[in-house]
Amino acid sequence: xxxPAIRWGVLAPxxxxxxxxxxxxxxxxxxxxxxxxxxxERAQAFAADxxxxxAHGSYESLVDDPGVDAIYVASPHSEHHxxxxxxxxxDKPVLVEKAFTRNAIEAxxxxxxxxxxxxxxxxxxxxxxxxxxxVVRRCLEDRLLGEVRAVEADHGQLLYPDGPQRLADPxxxxxxxxxxxxxxVSFAHFALGGFTAVQATGTRAETGVxxxxxxxxxxxxxxxxxxxxxxxxxxxxxxxxxGTAARVEIPGWFYQPNTVRLxxxxxxxxxxxxxxxxxxxxxxxxxxxxxxxxxxxxxxxLLPLDETLRIMQVLDEVRRQLDVTFPGED
Length: 330
Ligand SMILES: NC(=O)c1ccc[n+]([C@@H]2O[C@H](COP(=O)([O-])OP(=O)(O)OC[C@H]3O[C@@H](n4cnc5c(N)ncnc54)[C@H](OP(=O)(O)O)[C@@H]3O)[C@@H](O)[C@H]2O)c1
Known about the structure:
With about 325 residues, the protein is α/β, with parallel strands linked by helices. Helix content is about 35%, strand content about 25%. A hairpin with a 5-residue loop joins strand 8 and strand 9 (about 210-220). Bound molecules: NADP nicotinamide-adenine-dinucleotide phosphate.
């Protein structure tokens, strides 16, 4: 609530854009002032839902709106590259939904353009900006866990074959990896500070997208990570980081505002954090973005673009090992 207020333009008013705008309005002083859709009536309906002043019948018209301070790109993965470049081309800072792009080459193009033009860009990996992850960050920085030796995280949701068609469609860069596995991958990357090895195995859906994967990673200090994801079943969605002195555990839905337990090697609970609220978690990334703009910064220290690029390279490597490609990828 005490982050600076900015005027947002929402590009692509789909499912997450609705959740994001609701969280923004409930928990920050920033507002959605404009929205752009491929169809004017969808933009008008979204604008009416959120009291936005202007509805645009194209994304081009939205990014040219002079009354917008920043663009939130909420289209499918396949479109992020083009839509982020569209916003940057109009000199607009941009918050890009995860996965940042389809692949690392597309991501690098967006980052290069943003850096060349001096414009802020952040990957909307909302978990990274949540209070309980800040607590985990401080546990790591204060070395409460000792030497980190193991990370576990999983993310499974029953989304195929009866869920959103976007997830089943290779042309929209669907599949479990970019939608779901990116959470465990990003969490482990944060916990270990990077990976020195990535080994994946998985299954594919009938449409050719990946349906499930388990990803074993090694960290620079000899730690291991065991990550898994599926769109074929709901799984516990928990996460933990274990060190020589203690471990942190985040119970189910680790990527949402949640509890953090600090446990000793004897399993005794040493401390516990409860989030101030379990609602409106998407507002934290928007607040971070507003703070960047106000401070004249172009990248978030909590998720720098170089880390976004490294995470995209990991996702590319997993897809290479699973032999999953998207049409139109070079
Ligand atoms: N942070 C989170 O918790 C979270 C949760 C779910 C999804 N996401 C991410 O948010 C993004 C969008 O997911 P979503 O579930 O909101 O998708 P969605 O409901 O399908 O909405 C995507 C919107 O993109 C627009 N669009 C532009 N080009 C399109 C194309 N070629 N095909 C289909 N739609 C197109 C459409 O709006 P118009 O046609 O009206 O312009 C559509 O409503 C993805 O990157 C996903 O990973 C994040």
